[in-house]
Amino acid sequence: MTDFHYSTDADGIATISWDIPNKSMNVLSMEGLAELEAHIDTALGDESVKGVIITSGKPDFAGGMDLNVIAKMKEMAGDQPQKGLFDGIMSMHRTLRKIERAGMDPKTLKGAKPVVAALPGTALGIGLEIPLACHRIIAADNPKAKIGLPEIMVGIFPGAGGTTRLARKLGAMGAAPFLLEGKLSEPKKAKSAGIIDEVVPGEELLARAKEWVLGAKDADLVKPWDAKGYKMPGGAPYHPAGFMTFVGASAMINGKTQGVYPAAKALLSAVYEGAMVPFDTALKIEARWFVNVLMNPSSSAMIRSLFINKEALEKGANRPKVDDEKVRKLGVLGAGMMGAGIAYVAANAGIEVVLIDADQAAAERGKGYSEGILDKGMKRGKVTEAKKAEVLGRITPTTEYAALSGCDLVVEAVFEDPKVKAEVTTKAEAAIPADAIFATNTSTLPISDLAKASARPEQFIGIHFFSPVDKMLLVEIIRGRETGDRAVAKALDFVRQIRKTPIVVNDARFFYANRCIIPYINEGMRMVREGVAPALVENAAKLMGMPLGPLQLVDETSLDLGAKIAKATRAAMGDAYADGDVDEVVFWMVEEGRLGRKTKAGFYAYDDAGKRQGLWSGLGEKFDPAGDQPDLIEVQHRLMFAQALEAVRALEEGVLTDIREGDVGAILGWGFAPWSGGPFSWLDMLGAPFAVAVCDDLEARFGARFKAPALLREMAQSGKSFYASRASMAA
Ligand code: NAD
């Protein structure tokens, strides 16, 4: 396999073109890195070569590192994974440093051969770290291209010199959004931020790169950090301005990550410590911190869930093997909050949409929702007038079911009432082709029950979106008892078209995500009722990396919805219903008229503009938090186990069939502590024996809801973990 192609021309320019066969995007592997180094050696050793262009044979430059490489480095080093990683990373540094020095005399700083990166399109991660080691970065004016270092998003940081180079190039403050937030920019913005040097029309890219190489002077080839007297822009740590920057950055990181994401802190340490030493030592420091992060179980869990498994699910890891089921024309029934959102994401993905509501005005309002989003996009310069017209042109608002003719998929999002749903199912099925798939977006009603209204239950399925539809990344696909494979394939292909992440689960009360989030919310309210300080409950959750405390989450979703779900659940479960103590809190809040953010009054107080203030003081008066308060860890265990045990039960019961879906779905669906990689990864991190011991203790003190599921207990006895069991089953 050849990843990098080498050629020279009559003017003495060597071109190294990255073009991995049979892949749409270049990613760097260890073999690729060795090839790149060999080509650099050839170019530097060949007297007839005057300079080098590194570019790509594809529309994009590169998507990043093949993240499996990290696992390989660890494995290859046997019982010394740290050493394997450190050596592997230092070999990357060596190659990139070779490009950067390009044969330069270390004393005179003369004699280097110019190396330019010519980027036709997207350059991410290592795909930008290689260019950052070149003497100049020229990008094609391609507004679709993304330039940046998104590593932090999967729990690591740019560890092939990107951290050290960008911090030295832009200063700590300037580099912060790109390193700490993984901000991606199109080429022109990347140029104004100072990340790249030049943007030219695509067709002139290589000619301009060549022109630059031929005209480059010795001084153009010395990086600021290799020149005498280099000072970090904005000041190094012991400079007065730098001192302020680093103190502020440290506080900001701790505030944002609550100390649970190791990568951000390690990144800042690498920049801080690296800023006080010469460049080559800084690279070594960066490598040490990088190894530190890679050895933290959080980074492997995040990479596994948020990168490898998320991508596998998006590509259809659990898709039944049936023909292409891409949606061409979609019917949406109900143009309310959800229906309007579904219509927008589908139309935006190029699908023709018929949007039906009971009256024309409601249908039009539903379409208006898309207009609102597109207008906002135009204001931010992200959407053009033409794009807006195109998307809106795809949505037909109507009350006529006949308009559904030719739809190959219908998603129903009318009121949460089985009778109304049955009625629209019958009407729609009379209008759509016999082979069309019908999906319901219900959040609480069993799919198999709703399917009874369908004449074709094997073509009936649940496609459960989360609100707001245009922002939430997860879609839960629910197989009813009779749902057939083609319906599942259709739902998965639809989710892929609208670029969201699917999980496929079996039909059971609350499916998967809501099933796990409800116990979290309930545990929070239960503690308030017990007299645990509400601030302790909320902060304990946030310190575990939950994006919202349980009380804030109830405020966002509203207490009347909570009361409605509680009533329905109680009716369905009868004597088995175990949340009576929680209802006491919910119903009292509803009586007080404190329904959450929408009424500007809930567990939190809000100002007139609806901005959240502090926790509502009346809460403490009703449920007095006097007396001994529990330990932080205990509160955290209650909140986390409430969710994680429910996930395990969903697996035991066959609602979930794949722990990858359980983990990815938990992070994207309700924000389960992303640093942990999801509930199954978290339990693996704790180890089943410890997890069971905690369950036993919680069960003894707080009740049967914390009883360790048999599966977990079994794993504790046999010394297994969820992911090890999965791997041995897959092998
Ligand atoms: P909504 O009340 O905002 O919208 C429902 C729409 O359906 C209304 O516009 C109504 O006029 C229309 N409608 C009612 N009866 C109709 C009929 N016979 N024919 C045509 N249109 C009819 O409700 P929503 O929040 O959009 O929820 C819709 C569905 O999505 C429900 O099943 C709900 O459980 C589910 N859901 C909601 C959320 C959420 O967060 N709101 C999340 C996931 C799923």
Task: Give a description of the structure.
It is a single chain. The protein is of the alpha/beta class. The chain folds into 3 domains: 4-295, 2-enoyl-CoA Hydratase, Chain A, domain 1, CATH 3.90.226; 329-509, Rossmann fold (3-Layer(aba) Sandwich), CATH 3.40.50; 514-592 and 625-727, N-(1-d-carboxylethyl)-l-norvaline Dehydrogenase, domain 2 (Orthogonal Bundle). It has an 8-stranded mixed β-sheet with strand order 14-13-12-15-16-17-18-19, with helices on both faces. The chain has a 6-stranded mixed β-sheet with strand order 1-2-4-6-8-11, sandwiched between helices. α18 (513-530) packs across α22 and α26 (679-686) crosses α27. The model has no long low-confidence stretch (mean pLDDT 95). The protein binds nicotinamide-adenine-dinucleotide. Nicotinamide-adenine-dinucleotide binds at residues 333-339, 356-358, 362, 413-416, 420, 423-424, 441-443, 464-465, 467.
Please summarize what this structure is.
It contains 29 helices and 21 strands.
Instruction: Output the strand order for the largest sheet.
Output: 14-13-12-15-16-17-18-19
* CATH fold description of the largest domain: 2-enoyl-CoA Hydratase, Chain A, domain 1
- Helix-and-strand structural type: alpha/beta
Q: What is the CATH superfamily label of the largest domain?
A: 2-enoyl-CoA Hydratase, Chain A, domain 1
Can you count the helices?
Answer: 29
Assigned CATH architecture of the largest domain? Alpha-Beta Complex
Strand content: 5-15%
Give the count of structural domains.
3
